[in-house]
Amino acid sequence: MRVVIVGAGFGGIAAAIELRRHGFDQLTILEGADELGGTWYHNSYPGAACDIPSHAYSFSYAQRRDWPKLCPEQPEILAYLQGVAREHGVAEHIVTGAKVWACRWTDPGWRLATEDGRSFTCDAVVLATGQLHQPLWPAILGRDDFTGRSFHSAAWDHDYELAGKRVAVIGTGASAVQFVPEIASRVASLTVFQRSGNWFLPRRNRPYPRWLRTVIALVPGVQRARRWFVFGIGESLTAMIRNPRTVGLLGRLRSSVLMRWQLRNRELRRKAWPDYTFGCKRVLFSSYFLPALGRENVELVTSPIARIDPAAVCTGDGREYEVDCIIYGTGFRTTDFMFPMEITGVDGRSLAQDWADGAHAHLGMTVPGFPSMFVLYGPNTNTSGGSIIFYLERQARYVRQALSLVRSCGAGAIEVRREVEAASDRATQARFAGTAWTRCDSWYRSKDGRIIANWPGYMRQYAAATRTLDPDEFTLLPRAGA
Asked: N or C terminus of the chain: which is more exposed, having fewer CB within 10 Å?
């Protein structure tokens, strides 16, 4: 069976390792960048790191016991993923510089086309492009008229020297929260434009002391216990989001104490304070961002941006902020998934049209009308309190079960039943009722308000739902000529 995996980030590598372990050797991994790594290859801004502890943000079967800090930084994560790919023999299956623009079901199989004109055929396709890979540029009047330097945090301009410059940062999401403290002490002035505040929880991320590194490396069971502890912390955060009127109040209290302690200036506190329910948007982990806002050379602006002039950012209250550089920390097009890639299924079905009212898939992976196509980190599989690696490992196992069923039955392809996917989607959406996710607008939602990014429950529930593939939920299509 020929399998093509699109994307060589954590999802693509996880799928390749799982499939290769079970005898699927005809693998091709198509990666648009020059190296594997996905989001951890592209996002190299100052301070780029994961806010999930390293022993949880890593594969269960490829544990390291020599991480230097609690939360890994971008170079360490990239090196880890590259090392895992080599050690498990999947690096040799990667074709770099192959950005896929179209996937078409040809009955039998799939045909993929890359932007440089190459074509690949396969029996099954795994789309592992994820949710956080396409930078979002805000629609601000005059953005292209700015004559200074400007770039997105996901494509950091390392050749531009920020020291002594007047810098504007647009956006205060997870990326900005990491790079703002790193550059604040270097620039002449830093103006941070905020649309809405964030709820924060602490994350100091200091280097491990030598004694702790020794314990982790040498004492049996310590790493496993630490993984389960982090798992429990993640589940507790999900519980806070799912129950905003009870357990969620504890999360709000913990965050409020931290924020009041770090924001001693009342006016600054008023500006930075979130106006929505704890957990409705992504809760950010940082012990350094809020203190950075209090520096003398930093100003937090909450007035909406009206336009960008050739040399200034102009707000709706009539103020003009002259700057030399604009850094866009505006996140990603999270609800676009693999688009604008053209995905065409049976009878010319367009996935873009099927998802016009919001993306949906059975367990976030399979879509009726698109045989033997699987989406990793797809609709409603984002985590709000744990490690996405946990989800990706379960999804890779589920995909492997599906393809093993095809192989053992001598079939040509496998397709989820339409009524199964529809019922699955209804059940998923129903579980959001009463949760914090429904209480504000966020990047978890489509334009019409449908929550399409996050899993509505706990990690353990997703693990249970994907543990064993149910053949009755699928239709096996005959092999060509059979």
From this structure: C
Percent of the chain scoring above 90 in pLDDT: 94
Start-end of H helices in 61-146: 74-87
Q: Indicate the pLDDT class of residue 385, thresholds 50, 70 and 90.
A: confident
| pLDDT of 463 above 70 | yes
* Inter-axis angle of helices 459-466 and 222-242, nearest 10: 100
Count other Cβ atoms within 10 Å, centred on residue 341.
19
Give tens-digit pLDDT for 258-294: 999 999 999 999 999 999 999 999 999 999 999 999 9
Distance CA 93, CA 17 (A): 11
> Is the pTM higher than 0.90?
yes
Cβ 321 vs Cβ 313: under 8 Å = yes
What is the pLDDT, as a whole number, of residue 481? 63
Pairwise CA distance, residues 151 & 306, whole Å: 19
Tokens in use for 156? 């950091």
Cα end-to-end span (Å), the chain: 16
Helix 222-242 / helix 210-218 crossing angle, nearest 10 deg:
100
Contact assessment for residue 55 and residue 234, using Cβ atoms and an 8 Å cutoff:
no
Query: Which residue, 3, 63, 2, 51, is CA-closest to 396?
Result: 3
Asked whether the beta carbons of 300 and 194 are under 8 A apart, the reply is yes
